[in-house]
Amino acid sequence: MDPRFKRSRDLLRAAVYELAGERPITEVSVSDLCRRAGVSRDTFYRHASSPLVLLTDSLAAEVMALAESYGDLPARSADGSSVFDPAERALLSHIAEHATVYRNALQPQIVAPLRASLEGMIRASLLEHVRRHPEILPDAVRAADEQTLTMLAAYAASGTVGAIEIWLAGDDLDVDRGSAVILAASPEWWHGHPID
């Protein structure tokens, strides 16, 4: 990556996080971002088409890095906890770290592009997991086709994002508690608990 492009991208990301932490992203203009980042409008448009797109892409890059670091989960847990426990905690830690940004994006749900991005990344991770480990599927969908697998992942991802929105709207962003509640709401077969 060109060093100047990376430097301007980093300046814009820092600026969009600051401004989205101060007020709803829908109230942040390109001019606001350019002033805060110290870049021209031309430079801004080389990176994003709008402040919301810049914010969505910036947060997505962080979530994708998390997804990649937890991308090869086992089918079964050795200790009885959910195989998703570390990944769920990491995701909620990311959200808590950027809580004011995400809270300012609630209307009452997270603004559509940001919500769709988050939900899409979770869905893709879950779909990849179930493709790698079809043995975890319940008998009713054991011989599942791609559409069925995608439906299962979409259902779980939508529920996760919905629960995150409720968690974000609360006063206490207890990552351990939030993770435990989200995982408790998930069907047992996803978790990879050891078979007795």
From TrEMBL:
Keywords from the named record: DNA-binding
GO molecular function terms noted in the UniProt entry: DNA binding
Every HTH tetR-type domain range: 6-66
Residue ranges: DNA binding: 29-48
Pfam families named in the record: TetR_N
Superkingdom of origin organism: Bacteria
Name the record gives this protein: HTH tetR-type domain-containing protein
Organism: Amnibacterium flavum
Database matches in Gene3D superfamilies: Tetracycline Repressor, domain 2 (1.10.357.10)
